[in-house]
Specification:
The chain is an alpha+beta fold and 387 residues long. Helix content is 46%, strand content 10%. It is built from 18 helices and seven strands. Keywords: DNA integration, DNA recombination, DNA-binding.
């Protein structure tokens, strides 16, 4: 038999005496002795009676209480516990309220192990921090769509193309992280935003480099044994290491004519566990011996104040001389020399530069770093550079 519904009037609810009053269908108004009142719904699920609060009378008028009661009664009729379902919905809502800023920082923390120096340099996170989070950081990730992303990156999409691409890529990783946390995220939003933004007009410019024929003259000009000059000379002679591992070179990393660079310091080898062995030419060992006179806190190229010389120190030396070329460009100088003058095998030249060669499967079977062949080639390069 159907139970009578809507027994109470709005006037009665307003002046109801202390006690419990039924509106039918399991909906009750409980008026307390202190004057306050609250709604309670009683339902039976799988033979078990359940009571759930529907809010206070001051916040929930009679009409709204009846609508809420019918919604939860319908679930109970289908065999769903309304109390558990409401708690589930609350948890889902709480998850969806995670702000992009929180998710991005959690994502960054999770990825630090695979980033150089645990990401302390900030280069992975900075595109987000500078160009995305100021506008979207306090927006729930569940609400971020392609329009939000387009409007955020549009000001830099063409003028700062490389930075905009990095920001888009980082944002996509953060959204994937949010999805892994169980958040309701639109993983296609970055791709759709990219389609809305269109192709970038920015033209890629490569780092200027010194023609290999001019390297010996420049190397000879670094005749004073200052920290910066010695660092530049060693960078030219050990071309595969890039700036960071060279600047952080410690005396205990060299053993005879081998410099062992930790994998975490090598671009492309982080996370592989494989250190990079650099064969040292006679000239390179001579530079290292001279650098030992400047050793401080274990570092061969220390800064005047604290730590090591900065990433820009060597660049500024070349800039002050009016040169367009930059330190990183010596890798191009060497690679061109390998092709045009040394006629070095392609794979050996690439290994000297610590480049990954071949496909993933091919690399998994590769069990050599061509140390002896590289030792011979690097000595030829050093002899050429040294004149």
């Amino acid at each position: 038999m159907t139970r009578a519904l809507n027994k109470m009037s709005a006037a009665f609810v307003k002046s109801a005496p202390t006690g419990k009053h039924s509106d039918g269908g399991g909906l009750w108004l409980h008026r307390r002795s202190d004057g306050g009142a609250q709604w309670v719904l009683r339902v039976t699920v799988h033979g078990r009676r359940r009571e759930m609060g529907l809010g206070s009378l001051s916040d929930t008028p009679l009409k709204q209480a009846r609508m809420e009661a019918e919604k939860w009664r319908a679930l109970a009729r289908d065999g769903t516990d309304p109390i558990k379902e409401r708690e589930k919905q609350r948890r889902q809502k709480a998850r969806n309220l995670h702000m992009l800023g929180d998710v991005a920082r959690d994502c960054f923390d999770a990825r630090k192990a695979e980033l150089k120096g645990d990401g302390t340099a900030g280069r992975w996170f900075s595109p987000l921090e500078l160009h995305v989070l100021p506008r979207l950081g306090k927006v729930p990730v569940a609400e971020i769509d392609q329009i939000d992303i387009r409007d955020t990156l549009k000001p830099i999409w063409h003028d700062k193309a490389a930075t905009a691409r990095k920001a888009m890529e980082r944002l996509s990783v953060c959204l994937q992280h949010g999805a892994a946390l169980g958040l309701d995220v639109d993983l296609q939003a970055p791709a759709k935003a990219r389609a809305l933004l269109g192709a970038q007009r920015h033209k890629v410019t490569h780092i200027p480099f010194l023609p290999w024929q001019e390297v010996p003259a420049f190397y000879a000009s670094l005749d004073q044994d200052t920290v910066t000059n010695l660092a530049l000379r060693l960078l030219i002679l050990t071309i595969g290491t890039r700036s960071r591992p060279l600047r952080y070179l410690r005396a205990d990393q060299t053993l005879g004519d081998i410099w062992i660079v930790p994998a975490d310091e090598m671009k492309g080898k982080r996370g592989t566990g494989a250190d990079f062995r650099v064969p040292l030419s006679r000239q390179a060992m001579g530079v290292i011996d001279k650098a030992r006179a400047h050793e401080k806190d274990g570092f061969l190229f220390p800064s005047v104040r604290k730590g090591v010389i900065s990433d820009a120190t060597m660049s500024r030396l070349m800039e002050r001389r009016g040169m367009e070329a930059r330190p990183h460009g010596f890798r191009s100088s060497f690679r061109t020399w390998c092709s045009e003058a040394a006629e070095a095998p392609w794979e050996i030249a690439e290994e000297c530069l610590a480049h990954s060669t071949g496909g993933k499967v091919e690399r998994s079977y590769k069990r050599t770093d061509f140390l002896e062949q590289r030792r011979e080639l690097m000595q030829r390069w050093a002899d050429f550079v040294d004149g």
